């Protein structure tokens, strides 16, 4: 069987994943002489760079999400299916959903990555921030913590409720830590009567020497100084070794330390989605150490050139000894390139090799503060914050989302208010518990520092 591009009409392009890569590929194929099927487990696209705002009550989920059907409604050659792909058969050129099989001529896999806990069972104790569901769970835990502290008579336990530990100092960790600090030290200060929310401790743990390691060292240091000015405690060069109960254990050099905290959040480490393993087993794809799929220069697989992998799931060399980062602009450009590659291939037209245009890295630290690293231009402070603001609004896909987010941000800017501070638990009422001393030994069964040290 030939696995070259099929020139039959209509050529069927199946896209798995409605993130930036998959969506931009589908949009680019909207007027091509092909049939497009986009499959995603959810019926909406989410603007992931603003998930931290949902997690801290600054925006509602709908403000940063758009229904996939609405985004692609003008593409008359495109159908959207809500479902989960469980298998890929590259010989028969089919993808299997739980309820049906779909044949393809070209397949684009853009299912991204998920949280990486490095072999530890910490997901329940320390949720990550990759989906709307993650953001809502973090929002629930954050505001439950303040509500529980308000009703907690025991001072030590109250401190535990008001301690927030974030593991990972990349852009997501930095932005989330800054937003939590502004929430505790500003937005909520007048809302409670029995606690002073400005006493909340936000602790950011980072394994490398600097936070934001992809940025220049001086911007990383400026970002750390800005976080510390907001009240965030930044600890770098540390490695978390255990999360158990309400205790976070970490090693710094030869020293082992522990932090008592009720809210622990994970923003460190990503691993490839399960479809990478399926491609390795069925299509002989090669995976790197993090499980990403190593692709050819045109993002296809060496044995099956009609299967393409893009976005966070793809291991694509950057020409300087590394790989392209897992950020939205990379996925957007890759999606558009693969769409052009398929379209031009059907028309026997050559296409220039892929060349990523690097517009730089951006991270917001708080109100008036951000860092922008474009290589030739490095900014921090207010102007960097303004650039960050403009770019994020620009990349929101729907006009009503742009308008709503601008209004929300303007209102928050002048009033210091965050209007989406809702505690929601699907299918049940929120639980705010008080724990009697005789009922709860908070750290029962935990290892002491000496015991942890003896096991490492």
TrEMBL record:
Q: Which organism is it from?
A: Crocosphaera subtropica (strain ATCC 51142 / BH68) (Cyanothece sp. (strain ATCC 51142))
Name the record gives this protein: NADH:ubiquinone reductase (non-electrogenic)
Q: Does the keyword Membrane apply?
A: yes
UniProt xrefs under PANTHER family: EXTERNAL NADH-UBIQUINONE OXIDOREDUCTASE 1, MITOCHONDRIAL-RELATED (PTHR43706:SF47), NADH DEHYDROGENASE (PTHR43706)
Q: Give a yes or no for keyword Transmembrane in this entry.
A: yes
Pfam families, sorted: NDH2_C (PF22366), Pyr_redox_2 (PF07992)
Instruction: Mark the transmembrane ranges.
Output: 376-397
Q: Which keywords appear in this protein's UniProt record, sorted alphabetically?
A: FAD, Flavoprotein, Membrane, NAD, Oxidoreductase, Transit peptide, Transmembrane, Transmembrane helix
Give the E.C. number(s): 1.6.5.9
Q: Where along the sequence do coiled-coil regions lie?
A: none
Please name the GO terms that the record assigns under molecular function. Answer: NADH dehydrogenase (quinone) (non-electrogenic) activity
Q: Start and end of every External alternative NADH-ubiquinone oxidoreductase-like C-terminal domain?
A: 360-414
| Catalytic activity, reaction form | a quinone + NADH + H(+) = a quinol + NAD(+)
Q: Locate the FAD/NAD(P)-binding domain: which residues?
A: 12-335
Catalytic EC class: oxidoreductase
The family classification in the record reads: Belongs to the NADH dehydrogenase family.
């Amino acid at each position: 069987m030939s696995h070259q591009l099929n020139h039959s009409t209509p050529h069927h392009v199946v896209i798995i994943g409605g993130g930036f890569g998959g969506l931009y590929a589908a949009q680019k194929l909207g007027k091509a002489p092909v049939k497009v099927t986009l499959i995603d487990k959810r019926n909406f696209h989410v603007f992931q760079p603003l998930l931290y705002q949902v997690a801290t009550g600054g925006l509602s989920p709908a403000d940063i999400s758009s229904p996939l059907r609405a985004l692609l409604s003008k593409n008359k050659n495109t159908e959207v299916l809500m479902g989960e792909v469980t298998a890929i058969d590259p010989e028969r050129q089919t993808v299997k959903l739980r309820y049906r099989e779909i044949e393809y001529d070209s397949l684009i896999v853009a299912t991204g990555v998920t949280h990486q806990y490095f072999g530890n069972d910490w997901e329940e104790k320390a949720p990550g921030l990759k989906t709307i569901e993650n953001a809502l769970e973090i929002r629930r835990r954050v505001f439950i913590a303040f509500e529980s502290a308000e009703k907690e008579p025991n001072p030590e336990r109250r401190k535990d409720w008001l301690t927030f530990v974030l593991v990972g100092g990349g852009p997501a960790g930095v932005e989330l830590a800054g937003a939590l600090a502004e929430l505790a030290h500003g937005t909520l200060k007048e809302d409670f009567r029995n606690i002073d929310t400005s006493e909340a401790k936000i602790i950011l743990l980072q394994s490398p020497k600097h936070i934001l390691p992809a940025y220049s060292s001086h911007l990383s240091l400026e970002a750390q100084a800005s976080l510390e000015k907001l009240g965030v405690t930044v600890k770098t060069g540390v490695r978390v070794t255990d999360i158990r109960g309400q205790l976070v254990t970490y090693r710094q050099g030869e020293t082992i330390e522990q932090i008592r905290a009720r809210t622990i959040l994970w923003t460190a480490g990503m691993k490839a989605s399960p479809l990478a393993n399926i491609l390795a087993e069925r299509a002989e794809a090669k995976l790197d150490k993090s499980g990403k799929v190593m692709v050819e220069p045109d993002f296809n697989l060496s044995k099956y050139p009609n299967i393409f992998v893009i976005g966070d799931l793809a291991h694509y060399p950057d020409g300087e000894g590394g790989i392209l980062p897992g950020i939205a602009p990379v996925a957007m450009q890759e999606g558009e390139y693969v769409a052009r590659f398929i379209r031009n291939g059907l028309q026997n037209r050559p296409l220039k090799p892929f060349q990523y245009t690097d517009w730089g890295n951006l991270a917001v630290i708080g109100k008036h503060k951000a860092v922008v690293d474009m290589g030739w231009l490095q900014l921090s402070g207010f102007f960097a914050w303004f650039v960050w603001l403009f770019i994020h609004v620009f990349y929101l896909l729907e006009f009503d989302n742009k308008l709503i987010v601008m209004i929300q941000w303007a209102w928050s800017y002048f009033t210091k208010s965050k209007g989406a501070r809702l505690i929601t638990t699907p299918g049940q009422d929120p639980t705010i518990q008080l724990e009697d001393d005789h009922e709860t030994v908070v750290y029962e069964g935990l290892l002491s520092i000496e015991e942890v040290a003896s096991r490492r």
